[in-house]
Amino acid sequence: MALEGIFSPLPAFSQDDKGIGDPTFVPTVKIGKALVDGDSIQYMELSQVYVYPEPTFKSKRQQQAYMRLVRNVKKVLPIAKQVRQIIIETAEFTETLPPSERKEHLKRVEASIVKEYKPQMKKLTFSQGKLLIKLIDRECNSTAYEAMQAFIGPVRSGMWQAFAWMFGASLKKGYDPDGVDRLTERVVLMVEAGQI
């Protein structure tokens, strides 16, 4: 009973809470007190902390690859989160438009996205681009190809997929946090929590 009173004022955190999902999130400590059965009890509220064993590397090359992954995640995770936000806002706004105006609006959105993000995308390395495709799948719960297909249709999405394929990438590439992308998921969670 007493323990329930201590922990009941603490809110549950999720990935969607403001700040926690932000890659620049700085862990915080909030101190407060709760009144339980007429007695004041102090409590501390901490941001989510992930505990993993220290990574061990068999070679210098593995260590460099890990550090490169951390650097790449820090660079492209904010872009993936922006993509998620753009998709949400665009979907919500297009639902309010009459069907005759939707196509024109989506063309304007596409043009503004290309204009705003093209210089940023040109600066990404090949591995950062492939990582971005996977992180978009992680953030949006659908591949980059599926997201594009929903907005600009199968023909134009196919054109972008062919363009990516020419460079050895695939917009249809999924994200597997429990399989091949396990290490990436670990790094992403730690970056989101502000631990690295």
How many strands?
2
Q: Please describe the biggest sheet, giving its number of strands, its sense, and whether it closes into a barrel.
A: 2 strands, antiparallel
Uncertain residue ranges: 1-18
Distance N to C terminus: 38 Å
The dominant shape is flat
Radius of gyration: 21 Å
Structural class: mainly alpha
Query: Widest sheet: strand order?
Result: 1-2
**Average predicted confidence as pLDDT:** 81
Instruction: Count up the helices.
Output: 6
Q: How large is the share of residues in beta strands?
A: 5-15%
- Report the helical percentage: 55-70%
The SSE string, one letter per element, is: HEEHHHHH
Sum this structure up briefly.
The chain is mainly alpha-helical and 196 residues long. The protein contains six helices and two strands; from the N terminus they run H-E-E-H-H-H-H-H.
List the helices and strands and how they pair.
Elements: H1 2-7, E1 29-36, E2 39-46, H2 60-96, H3 99-122, H4 126-140, H5 144-166, H6 182-192
Antiparallel strand pairs: 1-2
Descriptive account of the structure:
With 196 residues, the chain is mainly alpha-helical. The chain is 59% helix and 8% strand. It contains six helices and two strands. The protein has helices spanning 2-7, 60-96, 99-122, 126-140, 144-166, 182-192, and strands at residues 29-36, 39-46. The chain is flat, with a radius of gyration of 21 Å. It starts with a helix and ends with a helix.
